[in-house]
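re: ur question from yesterday

yeah so i grabbed the chain u mentioned. its 278 aa long if i counted rite. heres the sequnce exactly as i have it in my notes:
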Amino acid sequence: MSALISLNGVSYQYEQAKEYALKELTVKIEANEWIAVLGRNGSGKSTFGRLLNGLLLPIEGSVLVSDLSTKDEQDVWSIRKKVGMVFQNPDHQFVATTVRDDLAFGLENLGLDRSTMEERITEYASLIGITHLLEAEPHRLSGGQKQRVAIAGIMAMEPDVIVFDEATSMLDPIGRKEVMDTIAMLHQRGVTIISITHDMEEAVRASRLLLFHDGELAIQGRPQEVFSQKERLAEFGLSLPFSIELQHELEKSGITLPKTCLTEEELVAELWTLYSMK
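ran it thru and got these structure tokens back, copy pasting raw so excuse formatting
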């Protein structure tokens, strides 16, 4: 069975740019994976996200979504129904004067009848927890609320994949938690998640990490595998999650734990187990 998304020898170069934004990238994404895409600014990670649903087209190689090519104009609309995107600034995705009308806009573009549209709006507003916001004006919402409305608008179109391009970077801690909890819930429901992020605490929740550097895929693997490469991450200008940094400091003091702890909760649990045995 083929992968849900396949990039085969993909290169991309922006007009008037001297260097490739992505170079000869080959990677596969399976259904229901949660991929976190990491890298410094200019590393190619946002270019990667935009290649997945045909917003950008490779100049070399191919991008296939369920065996449909983004280069085939007849397939692009089908691909964009399969791969939805949530961007850094949700204001750029609003087109209507109320949340309800904004959710309806995308569904109208799918050609759905009125009753089906209303059913989906009700279902996904409830699922994302924004039912009480349906009659609100989008520009009056908080950052976290705006981003959840944007997610509901994409979910109502029932894509197989959602790409989150720095979707929490403009949010305060409360808004960030709301959005991350929503992403985790969507993943549990079977949606394939691709999260482009600078936040290492968000990355640890993924099942696989892709780390880009100068347009190339430099490291990939499970969070435990990637974050164990402290020196290489430092070369690429990336930090470790707080819990792993603290674990390294504990090791310098002679406190060694049997596993790499990706979260503070895991670290506390391991420390509790260690000291309860003494």
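noticed a couple things. The mean pLDDT is 90. also Residues 241-278 form one domain.
anyway ttyl
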